[in-house]
Amino acid sequence: MQRSLAGWSSRAAVTGYIFVKLLLGLGWLASSAWSLRAETLGPRTTPFILAGVLFLAMGVSAVLLRRFGEARWFGWTQLLIDSFFVTSLVSMTGGATSPFFLLYFVNIVAAGFLVPSTGPVAIAGANTAAYGVLLWSLGLRSLMGALNGDPLLAYSHVLLQIFAFLLVGMLASSLSTGLRKARAALVQQERQNQLLQDRQDVILASLGTAVLLTDPLGNVADANPAARRLFGEPVGRPSLALFPGGEGLSGRLSWEQSEVVAGEARVLLCSRSVLDSGEQVYLVEDISNIRKMEAAVAREERLSAVGRLAAGLAHEIRNPLASLSGSVQLLQTESRNPLFDIMLREMDRLNGLVEDFLDSARPAGVKPEPCAPDQIVDDLLLTLRNDLRFRDRQLLRAAGEPVGLALLDPARFRQLLWNLLLNAAQATRTGGAVRVGLARVGGDLRLRVEDDGAGIPAEVLPQIFDPFFTSKAGGTGLGLANVERLTRAHGGVVRVESALGLGTVFELDFPQPAAAALPGGRS
């Protein structure tokens, strides 16, 4: 990079020098034409010949510039040719008293830009030699005439001119050295800045945290890829549009907000820093998974509390229930009072409630074995169809190919499916339908239970797997908690979609080994 930049600088310097020479040549040509307004050409053709040669040399230089502009010899050639033209011009316009004598200094100063640091001194020496040859060929008559014939003044004048050559050469050399050092430092600084910029871009691109920079007016000026994944294309948008309620953020440095990204609710942790320039930096991190894990941990803690409660109460409740049930059955043999049936039914309900508590308390251990989930689904649907409570609902098996054998705990799978079917049937209106489907998705087993019920409100949906959370009268709030717990014990996941008035869909995915790993393969 440094070499290419130096080459570009050298070519630019030569280009500028040729342009300056073009202006000087046009000035010389104009002054020659002005001097001939009242005279014939005659001996005055020499200035025009010199101007023509000068323009020809500049034309050749311009043609060769693209190819040789970076070559060191090209700059030396320009300077030496110009020393010849300046000497010719001075000899034509009065020698030592020529007003164009100052062009020697232009030539020396230009050497500081076109050739190495010692170049100005070398060009000053070349100009001194050319000037000396000029004085030797013309003599000092014109100079002495201008100085009233005093030879001492003439020689002093010449010595001062030569001294000026050398002095300007040394000054130009010193300035050229400083310029090149400054240019090298600038190139180095640019390289470091580019390296820092590249590192910054890599770091920002690899960050999972969204970073947004706003201008002093509050509009997003830059954003990293993570920010674009969260907000689309945020550049140019007001920061208040990205952070709802942002008009109250003037004194807030961190906050949480909810955002819907690709149809999925996300929880974002946001922080804001104000720079001295008035710009603001926003850091946004998606903590949805952290919140989900926190909710799962809280749910496990509640289940643990249920376990401790169930373990303490099960023995105290089931033994009296067993005694009461036996006593009522004994009384029932002596008298057919319908109150006994009610008592037995309620005791069975209490015993079922205790069983639910115990199920929630026990570790969700599963013993997977090859089984036929299609058969389990058909059996449970048949059982539910024969339940008089749901005779006005349609209990349907979704169309699809049999899924064959699957590696599941049959008892646990039957338990969680029964909970799902029971909830769906209870939520479905009269005349509505409950549809159950099994399918293979990417080799895994997917269970889908869909109902035509009233749906679940969006604000309630995240809590439906919490123990004891229920919206049904008489419900325990343990059915769906057990469904989620048993599904996770199988290594699976549960997804829920619901809309008010349109019903609810539960999808459970159970990871499965390759078909060849099951005894007998897939049926």
How are the SSEs ordered, and which strands pair?
Elements (H helix, E strand, L loop, with lengths): L1 H34 L9 H24 L3 H21 L10 H12 L4 H20 L2 H6 L4 H56 L3 E5 L5 E4 L1 H7 L7 H4 L11 E8 L2 E11 L5 E7 L1 H47 L3 H24 L7 E3 L1 H13 L8 E4 L8 E3 L1 H18 L5 E9 L2 E8 L27 H11 L3 E7 L3 E8 L13
Parallel strand pairs: 7-9
Antiparallel strand pairs: 1-2, 1-5, 3-4, 4-5, 6-8, 9-10, 10-12, 11-12
Helix pairs in contact: 1-2, 2-3, 3-4, 3-5, 4-5, 4-7, 5-7, 10-11, 12-13, 13-14
Number of helices: 14
Q: How much helical structure, as a percent, in the residues?
A: 55-70%
Q: Count of DSSP E strands?
A: 12
- Give, in spatial order, the strands making up the sheet with the most strands: 2-1-5-4-3
The shape is rod-shaped
Order of helices and strands: HHHHHHHEEHHEEEHHEHEEHEEHEE
Query: Averaged pLDDT, please?
Result: 75
Strand content: 5-15%
Low-confidence stretches: 1-8
Question: For the CA atoms, what is the radius of gyration?
Answer: 48 Å
What is the CA-CA span between the terminal residues?
68 Å
Structural class: alpha+beta
Q: What composes the largest sheet?
A: 5 strands, antiparallel
The number of domains? 4
